[in-house]
TrEMBL record:
<dbReference type="InterPro" id="IPR000847">
    <property type="entry name" value="LysR_HTH_N"/>
</dbReference>
<protein>
    <submittedName>
        <fullName>LysR family transcriptional regulator</fullName>
    </submittedName>
</protein>
<comment type="function">
    <text>NodD regulates the expression of the nodABCFE genes which encode other nodulation proteins. NodD is also a negative regulator of its own expression. Binds flavonoids as inducers.</text>
</comment>
<dbReference type="Pfam" id="PF00126">
    <property type="entry name" value="HTH_1"/>
</dbReference>
<dbReference type="InterPro" id="IPR036390">
    <property type="entry name" value="WH_DNA-bd_sf"/>
</dbReference>
<dbReference type="InterPro" id="IPR058163">
    <property type="entry name" value="LysR-type_TF_proteobact-type"/>
</dbReference>
<comment type="similarity">
    <text>Belongs to the LysR transcriptional regulatory family.</text>
</comment>
<keyword id="KW-0805">Transcription regulation</keyword>
<keyword id="KW-0804">Transcription</keyword>
<dbReference type="InterPro" id="IPR036388">
    <property type="entry name" value="WH-like_DNA-bd_sf"/>
</dbReference>
<dbReference type="Pfam" id="PF03466">
    <property type="entry name" value="LysR_substrate"/>
</dbReference>
<feature type="domain" description="HTH lysR-type">
    <location>
        <begin position="1"/>
        <end position="59"/>
    </location>
</feature>
<dbReference type="InterPro" id="IPR005119">
    <property type="entry name" value="LysR_subst-bd"/>
</dbReference>
<keyword id="KW-0238">DNA-binding</keyword>
């Protein structure tokens, strides 16, 4: 184990919010995660995390170290890559795919910034929930949410999508508010069609994992439509944080079962073999990594 392994592990723990999730993401045992964090704490001479029975809380020192760790890991990963076409401004057409709702919320500013920096590049963006075959379609980059299947693509994790169980006040006047996950069996629900199984929701709590069967009143593959359906009282919904947090703050949606966490989903930028990666694609990937902090939204506790 070297310092880069430890820094990569530290970044994953900060993004995932738990040693257990970081271990699963990295394919390691939890003792290995603990050992790597301990190595960094010894190296930096400070404590990076405070663990309670339910939460893993980063210290102020951890927040300070995170930015530096990302810079070091990015530089290290870039050092071994070939650098053809590094001279001169990038040009040509960059094709990429972005999840629909996520792209609407986060990527307008990123596209604009890239266009200002590299005006000779033409952007060809497809907003879709499907996992497009990058090689077959000539797509150079893709943003993907969820667990990735095994493939020849390279995946760089850039964040975590937190999800919240919500419902409109109007729905809760017609149905008894749930106190436990099993109570959701009595509620109509709005579900996301691309997650499997479609008729089950999972939650994590102090007492372990809870899986409950639900009855969809509406199923679709667009988080914005799911959000609108929830606002109209068509059902309770598990929404990504960017669709839910503002409506919770305004009182239009209510955060249900706050003691039961909906498992978060990994967020990756994926691309084919970096050996043949174009200059324009590499620069967009680097911009996504640079802006990755914007993907984190403060969710209600």
């Amino acid at each position: 184990m070297d310092r880069i392994d430890a820094l990569q592990t530290f970044i994953r723990v900060m993004e995932a919010g738990s040693f257990t999730q970081a271990a699963a993401d990295l394919g390691l045992g939890q003792p290995a995660i603990t050992k790597r964090i301990a190595l960094l704490e010894e190296q930096f001479g400070c404590r990076l995390f405070v663990r309670t029975t339910r939460k893993l809380r980063p210290t102020a020192e951890a927040d300070r170290v995170l930015k530096l760790a990302k810079e070091i890991v990015t530089l290290f990963e870039s050092a071994g890559l070939p650098s053809p076409k590094r001279v001169g401004a990038p040009s040509g057409t960059l094709r990429m795919t972005v999840p629909t709702s996520f792209g609407r919320y986060f990527f307008g500013d990123i596209f604009a910034e890239y266009g200002r920096r590299y005006p000779e590049v033409r952007l060809d963006i497809r907003f879709t929930e499907q996992f497009v075959d990058l090689v077959e379609t000539g797509t150079e980059l893709a943003i993907r949410i969820g667990v990735l299947s095994s493939s020849s693509l390279v995946a760089r994790r850039v964040g975590t999508v937190k999800r919240l169980l919500v419902a409109a006040p109007a729905l809760l006047t017609r149905h008894r508010p749930p106190r436990l996950p099993n109570d959701l069996r009595q509620l109509p629900c709005v579900t996301y069609s691309r997650l499997s199984p479609k008729n089950e929701w999972s939650f994590e709590s102090e007492t372990g994992r809870h899986v409950v069967g639900i009855t969809p009143s509406l199923t679709c593959d667009d988080a914005d439509i799911m959000s609108l359906a929830a606002l109209e009282g068509l059902g309770a919904a598990v929404l990504p944080d960017w669709c839910a947090v503002g409506h919770i703050a305004s009182g239009k949606l209510i955060h249900l079962l706050p003691d039961y966490d909906v498992p978060s989903l990994p967020l990756h930028v994926v691309y084919p073999d970096p050996q043949w990666m174009s200059h324009r694609a590499r620069l967009f990937r680097d911009l996504i990594i640079e802006r990755a902090d914007v993907f984190a939204i403060n969710t209600p506790q």
